[in-house]
Amino acid sequence: MYTDQMRRAFRSLEAPKNFSLQIIDNDHFLTVKAKEKEFMSLETVELKRQAVEYMIRVKKALEDNGAIVLLVREGGKEL
């Protein structure tokens, strides 16, 4: 499901410093996973806002290229 066109769209977007996303190919849909620890480590509200905007841009870029996208987070109390 994760095509070269989707990969190029994802890589064309610039992530905020010290923040990254993982793309997981689930055959019929993609999961975009953010690590809560990375997000909470961002020092300012502005950087956190940029991270959320980045996640939305990634989701839209992948959907514009035909993917069904699920946004998830890793972390929290279960760790």
Notes on the protein architecture:
The protein has 79 residues and is of the alpha+beta class. It contains three helices and three strands. Strands 1-2-3 form a three-stranded mixed sheet. A hairpin with a 4-residue loop joins strand 1 and strand 2. The termini are far apart. The model has no long low-confidence stretch (mean pLDDT 94).
Briefly, what is this?
With 79 residues, this protein is of the alpha+beta class. The protein has helices at residues 4-11, 36-41, 45-64, and strands at 21-25, 30-35, 69-74.
SSE arrangement:
Blueprint: H1 4-11, E1 21-25, E2 30-35, H2 36-41, H3 45-64, E3 69-74
Parallel strand pairs: 2-3
Antiparallel strand pairs: 1-2
